[in-house]
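Working notes for the structural subgroup meeting. M.R. asked for a predicted model of this chain before we commit to crystallization trials. I am recording the input and output together here so anyone reviewing the notebook later can reproduce the run.

Input as submitted:
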Amino acid sequence: MHIIFKPARIIVIALILLFNLFFCQSAFADGVTIVTHGWNPSIGYKPVWLESFRNAVSKNHLGNEKNYGKITVTQSGSRLVATCDPWNFDLSTGSTGEILIILDWSKVGDYLTGGPPTQNVAKVVVDKILTSQNNKPPLAELPVHLVGHSRGGGMVCEIARLLGEKGIIVDHLTALDPHPLTTSDPQPLFSKIIDTAAAIYENVVFADVYLQNSEYPTGEPVPGSYNRAWGTMSGGYHNNVSFFPNHRNIYLMYQGTVDLSSQVNNGEAVMTSRERSVWFAAEEYSGAKTGFCFSRIKGAVDRTLSGLHNNKLFKGTGIRQNLMWKEAVWPNIADLKICRGDSALDHGNHVISIGTELNLHYVSFDYDSSYTVTIHADSDRNPYNNNDYFALGSSIRHIATGGLFYKNRVTWDTSDVSNGMQAYIYTKISDGIRTRYFYAPACLIFSNIQKYIIPVFKPGPGHWSGLGITNLNSTNAAKVTITIFNQKGAVLATQFKTLPARGQDAFIVGAGVTDNGWIEIISTRQLAGLNFLGEYKDSSTDYYLGDVPFVQMLSNSLLIPHVAQNATWDTDVYAANPNTVTTTISYVYTSKTGIASTPYVTTIPANGSQQISVTDITHDIDVQGGCVTISSAQGLAAFALYNNLKTGSYSYAGIKAVDISE
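Returned structure, recorded in token form:
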């Protein structure tokens, strides 16, 4: 279904697409995180690390907002009992709808003294997720992230399965060194306790597993997940002469991806910068690009394909186990994306020019009944505190999907929004009895100001830079400010222009400037244009001209689609960081046969830029063809210049960097 609307009106265009499984899921935003332990709790049978993990999430990612709860499982006679206490979070206030839940089953966790298999524990826990507790909304109304260690890693798989049988789509499942009990484990004398094997079911969107294989109890890789394995993990719990130090270092490592401090203390052991340097691979950036980064809360990296559902439209390769859907009754939003043009807006702030058309893509699922979807603009990420600005159009009615998923596209004309409005977009889906919410990852900041980036400025003598710009507004003049920054982020020059309605101008910028850098253009109206980069041949007036396109949407994943660096050709890559913080950037050359080089890693200062020769990126290896990928912690603009001038020939071309963040 494709719908176009302004806040006050809606037009249905009518195109419904059916999917057997999942559409490609963006990470990020808010929900409920449930974290649990395994057989080996801390001293005194109190899993101390769980509270430390929960507090680290709150402190580092939720502004210290404490929507905390605890599910405790105990045994009464032969019966397991789950209680929700404390459960005193108040979602009618606060800016985030994120709830952090500790699942403590330590009182029944010792199977050698009569404790139950984990699937029995999972059964009594699931009801506490599906139903209202202490007059609070059911946890299942929000996207769910399940995190479990050791036997708890297998238990969260079983919880996900049971939720799926009720129709709940689980956004994220994380197993930390999962070790369900089998006959190979030490067993009680008179009976055997066998846990359900860890598995990823078809209601799980993304799954990641972190395991060690150096000591008992070893973690088990789980098919359908992103599996990251370690051998011996020195330091951490080894420094405490603890039992099972490698097994426990896995959850210490995971907390180190929540909290990137040089020293992380989880109440039981300490992770220092030394552990970071040893435990994480170069591409994991000391924990900044793995682990909790895949969660909706942090959302620092794209989810790996091996952990995403393997439906071709979902773009993942992770296999899934079949579910019994016959008791499935919950409605779901499996995904919500905001797209500007064809590009999805990822986690973080995005300045949107008022009047821009945004495409909202959502995927819905309800096995057994018809349902209604409404889309809302909210001032924060909490659907319960009545801080919405407005609903985007009317409600959208769907029939029951059975085992299929509907993908829908809604086009939003933002002409009527207020200048300066900051909005989060969410969907509400209801079957008349049950409701779920789902926020898109982006924060939208609406502005009358248009911003464009030109990632390269080359000064004279030897070069010149010119702009050709057109005001696309047919009724109002455009006031334009052009600022040139050097590579260290300092302002070199500023120029001002006023273009009449539909007016155009072409002019030189940066005359007299002697430093390399980049150009920022800010306009009160939307512009079309390009930058002319001229290079003089020797001291004559003959020059070569390359076209540098304006960049309006930054990306942390870019591709230069063709490069060459040898005796004939030179390729230089230019990248600009128009952000207020320094960013780390990684360049990787990939050959025509798909072989990737070792990353060339560097940094760009705030509001700075850099010029990198492909010689550096390939580590001094000559290449003819291939491409370069650019990855960064912050959104960048990039461009490449390709020429054979050193041979006396005349080829001189600009190459646009392509956004590959999807």
